[in-house]
Design a protein that fits this description.
two-stranded antiparallel ribbon, 4 helices, 245 residues, mainly beta, twelve-stranded antiparallel sheet, 13% helix
Length: 245
Amino acid sequence: MHFLQSRFFSLLQKFLVCICVAFPFFKLPLYSLSIKDKFLRGHIGDFIVWKYGKSFILVRLASLSPLSLEEISFSSLPTQKWNEWLLAKAPGHTSWSILYVDVQNNAITEAFSFTKNLWFRPQDDSSIWKNIFNAPLQKIPDQQRKKMGSPPLHKDDPDHRKIWVPSLIFQGTKNSHPSYEALQIFCPQKCSALANAHIELFFDASNPTFPFPYWVQITNPTGIAAKFFAVDSGINLFSPQKIPL
């Protein structure tokens, strides 16, 4: 199952649809960067490994002009270093593909499956991506951030709890004091894919050119619908795959 058909990325697609629909309804102060800006500020070879449920997916920034993302799905973490694993053709992977994004028209133009050795045009995914790269993000105010520990006994008591942050692992090393940009999206009721959902994204504040979020949580009125988080990340990861002409 390729990148855009997997359950993992179907949730991400819904999140992107929500951004498109919700854009005119944003009411909080807008963040100065968009998703497009974050990708275009990245570097070829930047990568992240997300976990969602029992599955893992490695996403690598393959090129900037044209913008392309390479993804590898797998069910268990390899024992090799990431560059060694890729050079060995990612043993144990369940899918491996690359997609190309037209940043001027904000649309996926085409994709290639290394697993199936064929080009394919994502079904309806271009409409999902339409205009989302330019959609601005919102900062999460500190007073709305999740806190660590038990809340004060009385609601009028001062809250001195520390703000919770997810783990940050870069090049296999855990950062003991991570600093994050906490951003959010609110989806209105008319956003059918994720009606009334709240999406949180955490980007590394100390590495502003790194394009991928380390934590994404989607919450709907009934509770947490999905979350995926990084188990590793890094730079200078290159692929042995060659796309046929």
